[in-house]
């Protein structure tokens, strides 16, 4: 089973590509290699293949990377399932995970992040959690997004160490992670991972 993330950048036309493209590439590189596991196409759309276990964290990480730019955001559909054809490029590969990701992406209306797997009950539970989490995540400021990005990149670091690499006070880091709902987001990722055995 694999996870396919299909996404696009919201408000990309209002920002110089040179500003957000390196951030997107850096985020995708953390989870795979181009063009076998990720590709950017049609200017501001992308596809990434990762493991089901890493899929939700990857989506939130990509969001944190791009939301460092004010007014920018990302829409991502996670498709879980099998992969039946392995192309030279991710956009040529195929299978249930790709179909689920595509269908899920077409149905993203107001919600910026959703998931589709072979199990409807699993989807309902996780998508409800995502809907609630997005009430906070969609409002992350550039400063909060930068702190969240660093916290995901350095899971073993405490707030004091994060403060040192970001040039902020520990109080700042604590406040920003609090506002980001970071503890709750991490609990949601862990819950999602614990439920994957249902698939």
Write the layout of secondary structure elements.
Elements lengths: L1 E9 L6 H13 L8 E4 L3 E6 L1 H15 L6 E9 L14 H11 L6 E4 L3 H18 L4 H12 L5 H8 L3 H11 L1 H14 L4
Structure description:
By secondary structure, this protein is α+β, with helices and mostly antiparallel strands. It is built from eight helices and five strands; from the N terminus they run βαββαβαβααααα. It has helices at 17-29, 52-66, 96-106, 120-137, 142-153, 159-166, 170-180, 182-195; strands at 2-10, 38-41, 45-50, 73-81, 113-116. α6 (159-166) packs across α7. It is globular and about 50 Å long. The protein starts with a strand and ends with a helix.
Question: Any idea what the shape is?
Answer: globular
- Overall average residue pLDDT: 97
Question: Level of helix content?
Answer: 40-55%
- Helix count? 8
Instruction: Give the SSE order as H and E letters.
Output: EHEEHEHEHHHHH
* Distance separating the two termini: 9 Å
Largest sheet: 5 strands, mixed
- Secondary structure class reads alpha+beta
Q: Detail the poorly predicted runs.
A: none
Please compute the radius of gyration using only Cα atoms. 16 Å
């Amino acid at each position: 089973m694999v996870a396919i993330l299909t996404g696009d950048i919201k408000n990309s036309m209002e920002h110089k590509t040179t500003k957000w493209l390196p951030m997107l590439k850096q985020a995708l590189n953390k989870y795979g290699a181009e063009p076998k596991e990720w590709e950017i196409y049609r200017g501001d759309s992308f596809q990434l293949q990762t493991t089901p276990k890493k899929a939700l964290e990857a989506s939130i990480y990509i969001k944190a990377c791009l939301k460092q730019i004010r007014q920018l955001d990302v829409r991502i559909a996670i498709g879980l399932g099998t992969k039946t054809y392995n192309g030279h490029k991710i956009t040529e590969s195929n299978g249930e995970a790709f179909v689920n990701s595509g269908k899920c992406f077409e149905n993203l209306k107001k919600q910026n992040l959703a998931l589709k797997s072979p199990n409807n009950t699993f989807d309902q539970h996780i998508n409800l959690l995502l809907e609630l989490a997005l009430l906070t995540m969609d409002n992350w400021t550039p400063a909060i997004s930068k702190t969240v990005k660093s916290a995901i990149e350095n899971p073993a670091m405490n707030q004091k160490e994060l403060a040192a690499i970001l040039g902020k006070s520990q109080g700042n880091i604590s406040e920003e992670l609090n506002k980001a709902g970071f503890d709750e987001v991490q609990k949601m990722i862990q819950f999602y991972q614990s439920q994957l055995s249902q698939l």
